[in-house]
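pls read this stuff:
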Amino acid sequence: MKIQKLSIRHHERTLVDIAFSIRSSLALVGQSGSGKSLTLKALLEMLPSNMDLELEVESDFELKAGKTLSFVPQNPFTALSPLTKIKKQFFTSSQNVEELFAKVGLELELLERFSPELSGGQLQRVIIAMALESKPKLLLLDEPTTALDFETRVLILELLKKLQKEFDFRILFVTHDIIAASSLCQDICVIKEGKVVESGPMQSVLENPHANYTKTLIEANFANRKFRE
């Protein structure tokens, strides 16, 4: 599928003006303020009413949030109601919920618990299961591992790879974490101040980045990893 044009304007100012293709999995990478979050909101039909959107899509399915398009947010700790049992926060049948729990590797007894009783990794798996309820064609990931420890991040990324093969959905991974993105995504699109500065196959861009901005992001990511280790 291709996003041939995604342009967001606020009054007379253009905030985002980008285009990209999603063959299988694409990482949309940039620092804070680059336009990543606005792009997500545009695709989810969640832009503020004072912003104008121009969206041209070439795809074999219609983009529709909650149907062909599902979303996994950044922070699993705030994504669910703390006052409602997990099982009551699904909209599908009990049998489907149990099947989805098996797919994401969760025990059924967690369905009787409340979200504060679950770990970050368990919560993110619940949210991924919820995102798969509608059997989406495109899964939007908003920094889905940022709030998790390193080991859990690796497990979640491996789970997403497995689920993509099984459910056959495309992935748009919005992140500033190139290392995480490189373990999941086939391609990368780097944006700065609402514009694409570089795009291409992930490995090719990592090994031979052309834009100075991309080089800086890559160096910062790998420096941070060494610091954490």
In short: Residues 2-228 form a domain with the Rossmann fold fold (CATH 3.40.50.300). The longest strand covers residues 2-10. The beta strands are 2-10, 13-21, 25-29, 51-58, 69-72, 138-142, 170-175, 187-192, 195-201. The helical segments are 36-43, 94-103, 120-131, 150-167, 178-182, 202-207, 212-228.
